[in-house]
Design a protein that fits this description.
Elements (H helix, E strand, L loop, with lengths): L1 H5 L1 H26 L7 H18 L2 E6 L6 E5 L5 H9 L3 E5 L8 H7 L3 E3 L4 H16 L3 E4 L20 H4 L5 E10 L4 H4 L8 H9 L4 E9 L7 H17 L4
Parallel strand pairs: 1-7, 2-5, 2-6, 3-4, 3-5
Antiparallel strand pairs: 6-7
Helix pairs in contact: 2-3, 3-4
Length: 252
């Protein structure tokens, strides 16, 4: 791998550090919940926040925020990388909705399950309905649920059209609704190719390359929607417009 050849010491040391943090995170979860399936969402979110903060130190990640940071309700965001989850979780305790494939990722899938991630198979309409009910239940329990309605990650140059299938809880207007925009900056690389996780990229080479970077700068902008549509498809367009507006403002 090119990253390992260019920065062998940095990559190897950080990789061992990452494995150590994963091990400590698993031990922390066992102490907190004993790997119980009934561990409350609040405990899982607090555990994920603590673990994410420790992991982002490995990548020397700085985070800048603007707007009111939500603590409950539904947060809709653009999606660039698996790093997004660590960044948002570091800012505020939350639970996430992810595509079914993440569940089988090595190591990351295991920790996603511990964090209480809601996995959705968008190809199965009945499963989407089940996930929607799970989102509603989590919101009713006071959780902050994070949804990436693009359905996949991208290079960040444009925001993909939003899928409306999981927005039913937001359309009911029973909980606060927020939108956010995540952006990154690298001093020694190309964000679209080295932070963004898209196209036919595979996890291990991408992660090794990311471990070779000097620092990662992340910017997250938040806005609350005070008035929103009760129609899911119209709400999807409205949220897309709000995040597009955030994208027009300077990030760093």
């Amino acid at each position: 791998m090119k990253a390992l050849r260019r920065h062998p010491v940095r990559v190897v040391l950080r990789l061992f550090w990452l494995m150590a943090e994963f091990t400590l995170a698993a031990i922390d979860f066992a102490r907190m919940c004993g790997f119980s399936k009934n561990c409350p969402e609040s405990k899982r979110a607090a555990w994920l926040q603590h673990s994410s903060r420790r992991i982002l130190r490995i990548f020397r990640t700085s985070i800048k925020t603007s707007g009111t940071v939500p603590t409950s309700g539904l947060l809709v965001s653009n999606h660039l990388s698996y790093v997004d989850i660590l960044v948002i979780a570091t800012i505020t305790p939350a639970m996430f909705v992810a595509k079914r494939e993440v569940k089988s990722w090595p190591i990351f899938g295991f920790f996603a399950r511990l964090a209480g991630t809601l996995f959705v198979d968008r190809q199965r309409r009945t499963h989407v309905g089940q996930t929607t009910n799970e989102i509603q239940t989590a919101l009713d329990h006071g959780a902050l649920v994070v949804l990436f309605p693009e359905g996949t990650s991208s290079d960040g140059k444009t925001i993909l059209p939003f899928k409306s299938s999981l927005l039913e809880p937001a359309a009911r207007h029973t909980h606060s609704l927020y939108a956010s925009l995540i952006q990154y900056e690298l001093e020694d690389g190309d964000v679209s190719e080295e932070i963004c996780y898209w196209k036919d990229m595979t996890l291990v080479p991408h992660l090794f390359n990311l471990l070779s970077k000097k620092t990662i700068h992340a910017s997250v902008s938040f806005t609350q929607l005070r008035e929103s549509s009760t129609d899911r498809k119209e709400l999807a367009r409205q949220l897309h417009s709000e995040i597009s507006k955030l994208k027009e403002a300077p990030a760093f």
